[in-house]
Amino acid sequence: MRKRSTVIPLLALVTLALPAPATAQPTNTVISGQARFQVLSPTLVRTEYAGDRNFENAASYNVVNRTGFPRTAYRSRVEDGWLTITTSAMTLRYRVGSGPFRADNLELRTGGTTASPWRRVVCATGQLCEAEEQHREGMLIAADHPGHTGSGFVAGFSYTNHAVTATVRATSAGRHQVAVRYANGRGGDGKHEGRTLSLSVDGRAAQQITLPATADWGDWRQVVTEVDLPAGEHRVALTRTAADSGNVNVDSLALLTPGQPYPSTRATDDCRFGTSCEAENGLLSGPAKIAEDHAGFAGTGFVAEMAGGTRLSQRVTSVPTAGTYPVVLRYANGVGGDGKHEPRTVLLNGQAVTLPVTANWATWATATAQVPLPAGTSDLTVTCPDTGCHVNLDTIGLNTSTQHLALGGYRRSLDGYTGTNGDPRLYPGLLHRDGWYLLDDTGSALANATPRPDRGAQPYQDGYVFGYGQDYKTALGDLATLTGGPKLLPRWAYGVWYSQYMDRTAADYRDRILPAFRQHGVPLDVLVVDTDFKAHNLWNGWRMDQSKFPDPQGFLDWAHGEGLHSTLNIHPSIQGSDPDFPRAQATAKGKLAKGSCNDCYVFDWGDPDQLRAYLELHRNMPTDFWWLDWCCDGSGSSLRGVTPDTWINEQYSKLQGGFAFSRGFGSLQAGGYSGSGPLPTGPWAEKRHTLHFTGDTSSTWGAMKGTIGYTSAEGVATGMASISHDIGGHNDTTGLRGSETYLDNGQLRYTTKLPDDLYARWVQLGAFQPITRLHSNHGDRLPWQYGPAAQASATKFLNLRERLVPYIYTLAEEANRTGVPLVRPAYLEHPGSPEAYSTVDTQFLLGPDVLVAPITTPGEVGETRVWFPPGEWTDYFTGRTYQGNTWATVSAGWDTMPVFLRAGGLLVERTNNVANDVQNATDELTVHVTAGAKGEFTLYEDNERKLAARTRITQDRDTVTVHPAKGWFPGKVSKRDWTVVVHEADGSTRTVKASGKSAHQRVVISLRAPR
Asked: Is 11 among the domain residues?
């Protein structure tokens, strides 16, 4: 009996130790031991690893919906130790019982691509652990100080709960040292002194460590803390707690045995055979560095100018059999540091490979070599001869030429962009050319903004693998379902905005500005009141100046009576001398801290008391919505797992107006004025409540041109649909005297203006952007402030924009449902056309049927090279037709621009010019069609209560049919006058009218020309 009673517990222990076999559940879930897979759609699978087997079912702050997907058919099986899950679009393989996801145990196949979505760097005892490769909370990666290793360092620790957490592996039990390599120069608070952080292991009680001052930010030193550890994996966290001073940079850390020197060999993850390995992830020694200063690279950077003595090694796993395989090097070969521009030679496992020249350092090419490899695991090593090879290396493809190249990208803002100071660094988002993406949600808080439960030493991963191939629209739809669709703004927000950083009064708007709009026949929907309206302090005061706005509510009521909506500009800090400061500090329970600005206090929006104090300051300033203009003040959020921009923007959307107007994706305190980089929690929640203001660009042709590609790039990377640029640019570069005067510190100054051609072309571009917002820093942006030709052009296109509001609002509602942005690159509609990818910086689609190719060169007549996607395209202004899959040089004066309607597309607009959208019913609509085509369009309309109607309009060659509206319909529009403009093949147009038709009846309009 004793023997039997002993065997049963042993068997039970063995059963617990072994992973459970993978089985297909009657739901969408497959569990294999500590790994769980949830098949959400044919192109989306959740991959979750929980070392404690405690899987997370609650929604996260990013991922708000996993249940809204239709049931997906899939197959799963276990064969040869691998779990394989197959949908109609992708195959995911996981090696059963192999632990947390990493490069060699989780494989994705989709659309001809093989990829390793997960990369996991575990730092064993004695290995260098680069901080930038570990989990970060609230901090950016920077590289602006010399002497760091790897691609950069984790910068700042400037806010409570900023942290970096490394996964380390103790190779034996016992006493260990955690060594941290850091720099501690003069901080943003002006102090140069010893700083503190807190170090914890596996979530246990933290111990405070002191980091003495270093000579400057390029002086890197080490500090050591002793810990007792059992053998195995552990999580080592460096955190700025409320008791710490922070304000340091951390380059790396290492787990060491006592007396072990600080290592130079860094920990890496392997690269799986059949995938493309990022060069920056390999083991690098010698003079070459990791960089990101040239566009077009894959991953997070590249190995920059490999000189003599450079050695790059990459561990390769899962080679199926011994043999000779193609290895593809992606490289750039411009003018080297030796002044030469010539073919170069590198050695690949000792084999010489010639790399021909490329046009410059931003032009990437590939070269292929046949390399013998043994079965299983081995190393690939690229070295340079002693004379140097002077090339940049981006990727190493192992039996593949596929590159993981981002389509589009995003950043917090374009502040300071001129178009001549280098392309702004965009950060990859959802779409990639090889058709896959991992949305790593591990660090996101739960949906209620509380951190996920701490799991001690147990590993945890939570990520969503997208495998969409070239079905980019489906990927955007999956993203919208998973993380929420982009915010649908009120319809008036898609009209014309007037904004100017200049001291204005209620009387100015009432007696001069709006009457001038009306006099000159220019529409206006949104009036932006910039910062000078404030009392006590023009920057961060919290009351409206009674001398400028004697009746704030009356001003807003006046605006509403004129069919306008208004916003007020906010800077998020408060002066200690402000009359509202004592009340704010009392509400915050004394926790408001001094900021870096003069005598100002800033808010931690992650603290409920400080958030309440901040929001209460807004109560005495009536407005329709708020413009949070982050700059220079330093407020932020200590919430873990929630990006500060996203958190405060959500609060603004609840406060008033239903949406925030702000920068996004990051945090001011994480990276300077513009805070251009993203935070690890990602951009996925931002679009649900934010109209993204892209910051202060300069008034140049280059800056204007740069926004063409940026709008669609951000849309496809994040799903953001509402993007607002400063039309005309913010900062003057011309010095041309404008039409108004103002006082600046007692000095009388003139406003500035753009050259007439630049102004006219920028307004043309703005008319087809998601938001049409004229803005400047004390600059003229109104049509009547320019010469007759520029005035006529701007007036024409601002009126066209106003007429297009019903069409644009329909596209915005579609974006909210489908995730496909209003302004989109052609490859969303034509993924198989190479030209659709090469033209993203010069043209875009507004919806699927309108092609826009702005003129971006000076002169009275400009031209641009246009690629026409498949189909037939008709010039909206001239009627000239172009066949698809062709190129043409199109010229235009200021009265027109290259805008084309696809045959089969139906463009709906107001029939007449109107002063604004809200006071003018859409009872007269015009539909533009091309003769003899077939197509359809469904017009979306709603009211303030979001009771909606959809009107389907179809064209069948010579007939246009308006089908009865479905759903609620605006009471102001019981009847409609329909006008159809028929664009003929010879460039002429015909107009057919159907007047006084009920919105609920079927209207058939014959397009046959009278004989």
From this structure: no
Please tell me whether residue 642 adopts helix, strand or coil conformation: coil
Residues 673 and 767 in one domain: yes
Cβ pair 887, 868 in contact under 8 A = yes
| Helices (H), ranges, 825-888 | 834-838
d(CA 999, CA 388): 75
Q: Which two tokens stand for residue 809?
A: 């609002």
Contact 28, 42 (CB under 8 A): no
Is residue 428 a part of any domain in this protein? no
Which of 140, 238, 680 has the alpha carbon at shortest distance from 441? 680
Residues 461 and 393 in one domain: no
User: What is the SS3 assignment for 416?
Assistant: coil
pLDDT at 679: 82
Give the closest residue to 413 by CA, choosing from 700, 770, 697: 697
Domain encompassing residue 955 = 843-1007
Cα–Cα distance measured from residue 196 to residue 246, given in angstroms and rounded to the nearest whole number: 6
Does one domain contain both 871 and 807? no
Domain-terminating residue out of 826, 856, 886: 826
Beta bridge partners of 1010: none
DSSP symbol at 779: B
Strands 959-962 and 966-967: unpaired
Give the H/E segment covering residue 908: strand 907-910
Mean pLDDT in the chain?
93
861 with 802, same domain: the answer is no
305 torsion bin: left (phi>0), alpha (psi -120 to 50), beta (else): left
Helix (H, G, I), strand (E, B) or coil at 871: coil
Mean pLDDT calculated for residue range 500-526:
98
| CB-CB contact of 676 with 696 (8 Å) | no
Residue 909 has pLDDT above 70, yes or no: yes
CB 697 within 8 A of CB 417: yes
Residue with tokens 């309440």: 612
Measure the CA–CA gap between 741 and 376, rounded to whole angstroms: 75
Name which of 609, 573, 568, 618 is nearest 591 in CA terms.
609
Whether the CB-CB separation of 677 and 707 falls below 8 Å is answered with no
Do 326 and 457 fall into the same domain? Answer: no
Mean pLDDT along residues 481-497: 97
Task: Give yes or no for a contact between 814 and 808, defined as CB atoms under 8 angstroms apart.
Answer: no
d(CA 695, CA 765): 17
Look at residue 4 and tell me whether its pLDDT is greater than 60: no
Let me know whether 859 and 769 are in one domain. Answer: no
Mark whether 866 and 888 lie in a shared domain.
Answer: yes
Can you tell me the distance from the alpha carbon of 814 to that of 799, in angstroms, rounded to the nearest whole number? 24
Does pLDDT of 671 surpass 80?
no
d(CA 679, CA 842) in angstroms, rounded, equals 29
Q: Per DSSP, what are the bridge partners of residue 961? A: 954, 1004
Tokens of 561: 């009576």
Q: Burial, 818: exposed, middle or buried (Cβ in 10 Å; 0-12, 13-18, 19+)? A: middle
Pair 1003, 962: CB distance under 8 Å: yes
* 3-class secondary-structure state, position 755: coil
Count Cβ atoms below 10 Å from residue 882 Cβ, excluding itself. 18
In this predicted structure, the answer to whether residue 792 has a pLDDT above a threshold of 60 is yes
Phi-psi region of 708 (alpha: psi -120 to 50; beta: other; left: phi over 0): alpha
At residue 6 the predicted structure's pLDDT band, cuts being 50, 70 and 90, is very low
Task: Of 559, 560, 538, give the one whose Cα is nearest residue 548.
Answer: 538
Query: Count of CB atoms within 10 A of residue 673's CB?
Result: 15
Residues 6+ apart with CB under 8 A from 228: 174, 175, 176
Query: How many CB atoms are located within 10 Å of the residue 75 CB?
Result: 11
In the structure, what pLDDT confidence band is assigned to residue 630 with cuts at 50, 70 and 90?
confident
> Which long-range contacts link 52-56 to residues 24+ away (Cβ below 8 Å)?
52/455, 52/458, 52/460, 54/453, 54/455, 56/452, 56/462
Classified as helix, coil or strand, 735 is: coil
Task: Work out the pLDDT band at 962, boundaries 50, 70, 90.
Answer: very high
Is 19 a residue whose pLDDT tops 50?
A: no
